[in-house]
Amino acid sequence: MEKLKEEFYKIILKLMVSAIKITTKHIYRLRYIDFDMKTILKIFILKQLMKEEMSGYDIMKRCEEVLGYKPSPGTIYPLLKSMERKKIIEGKREGRRIVYKLLPKGRKFMKEIMMAREEFYRKLHSQMAAMEEIFGGEITIGWKEKIIKKYPLLPKIIFILERMGSKRANEMLEEFYRRLKNASN
């Protein structure tokens, strides 16, 4: 049973890596936004602009509410201007504020991101359904909490591994797995 649980968690890890690859592929292919550390913030901004038009200040407040931190104006406004130059969003002056809205190119980009997310969820659901069929609900209950919440560095590690190439990443994962297995014995 423990061996199968271990295999299940390996599958989940592979699916997480797959999701990162899919998202990276869509972002690179579309070339609307360069894939760098600010990409998540850009996608967050676009997601908010899908819901409603917002000013830069409104976006900073929403970041604080949802993400738990308030980016500086020196971070938000250059991102907005960059997306405006790429014709992803458009800013319109309303009094002293500039209110931004999503343009068709931005909507297309967000549609691609949502499609990548849906593909990841389909793959994940398929694996989860198979594991539930084999073991009942006990193995899959709380897997997110067990993996992501218990090990918050895991998504960051996956992101770094993804950037270094699969051969080198797999070598490092194999070494880490051997060390982890030895430490747990």
Describe this structure in words.
- This protein has 185 residues and is mainly α.
- The chain has a domain at 1-126: Arc Repressor Mutant, subunit A (Orthogonal Bundle), CATH 1.10.10.10.
- Helix content is 73%, strand content 8%.
- The chain contains eight helices and three strands.
- The protein has helices spanning 2-30, 39-51, 56-67, 73-85, 104-135, 143-149, 154-163, 166-184, and strands at 54-55, 89-94, 97-102.
- The protein has a three-stranded antiparallel beta sheet with strand order 1-3-2.
- Strand 2 (89-94) and strand 3 (97-102) form a beta hairpin.
- Helix 1 runs antiparallel to helix 5, helix 1 packs across helix 7 (154-163) and helix 3 (56-67) crosses helix 4.
- It starts with a helix and ends with a helix.
- Mean pLDDT is 76; it is low at 27-35.
User: Whole-number radius of gyration?
Assistant: 20 Å
Major β-sheet strand ordering: 1-3-2
Distance between the termini: 17 Å
Largest sheet: 3 strands, antiparallel
Strand content: 5-15%
What is the name of the CATH superfamily of the domain at 1-126? Winged helix-like DNA-binding domain superfamily/Winged helix DNA-binding domain
Structural class: mainly alpha
CATH topology of the domain at 1-126: Arc Repressor Mutant, subunit A
Can you tell me the residue ranges where pLDDT is under 50 for at least 5 consecutive residues?
A: 27-35
Shape estimate: elongated
DSSP helix fraction: over 70%
Classified by CATH, the class of the domain at 1-126 is Mainly Alpha
User: What is the helix tally?
Assistant: 8
Number of strands: 3
- Summarize model confidence as the mean pLDDT: 76
CATH architecture of the domain at 1-126: Orthogonal Bundle
What is the N-to-C succession of helices and strands?
HHEHHEEHHHH
